[in-house]
Write a structure and sequence with these properties.
By secondary structure, the protein is an alpha/beta fold. The protein has helices spanning 25-37, 53-62, 81-87, 107-114, 130-142, 146-168; strands spanning 15-19, 42-46, 70-76, 93-98, 123-124. The longest helix is centred in the C-terminal third of the chain and has 23 residues, at 146-168. The chain is globular. The structure holds 5-O-phosphono-beta-D-ribofuranose.
């Protein structure tokens, strides 16, 4: 398959989750898991800004046309995938800095994703914060999806109940 004509099978996905390497998967899976809990269709792929730049370009430029609404991009070290993806699409991009094996201490991943130039925003979550990236993606989608908004309300009240219950165990 040519990297310039990459065809994704999951035409129903609303959120595209991409990561620089399979080594990011244990973290990035958490975004997919929470989105699935919330009933949001996702697609998951490995796309490297440095090792497969043409694939990144074709993914990012075709994402909106394929029906994606939000992209979550995770990478570590010199983490250029989220920012470069954001430069190629008008879809909102949520960046997940990963504390990867080539990361010095995590700050390199955080700052590479966070410190974007004016005009090209990436909504950056905490180091290894893929679960929050998934929740934020759902919240973005929920601005035009009442059923999802309802599910998010439930999700939040379950979190509240858990904390309230934990107070009783102290
Ligand atoms: C980044 O380099 C990837 O996103 C990953 O976090 C890190 C290490 O990649 P591998 O050497 O494990 O493939 O580009």
């Amino acid at each position: 398959m040519s990297p310039n004509s990459y065809i994704y099978p999951d035409m129903a996905a609303q959120v595209g989750i991409i990561m620089g390497s399979t080594s990011d998967l244990p973290i990035m899976q958490q975004a997919a898991d929470v989105l699935q809990e919330l009933g949001v269709e996702v697609e998951l792929d490995v796309i490297s800004a440095h090792r497969t730049p043409k694939l990144m370009m074709s993914y990012a430029t075709g994402a909106k046309e394929r029906g994606l609404k939000v992209i979550i991009a995770g990478a570590g070290g010199a983490a250029h995938l989220p920012g470069m993806t954001a430069s190629l699409t008008v879809l909102p991009v949520i960046g997940v800095p990963v504390k990867s094996r080539n990361s010095i201490d995590g700050w390199d991943s955080v700052l590479s994703i966070l410190q974007m130039p004016a005009g090209v925003p990436v909504a950056t979550v905490a180091l290894d914060g893929a679960r929050n990236a998934g929740i934020l993606a759902a919240q973005i989608l929920a601005t035009s999806d009442d059923a999802l908004s309802e599910r998010l309300e439930k999700f939040k009240s379950q979190m509240e109940s858990k904390v309230m219950d934990s107070r009783k165990t102290l």
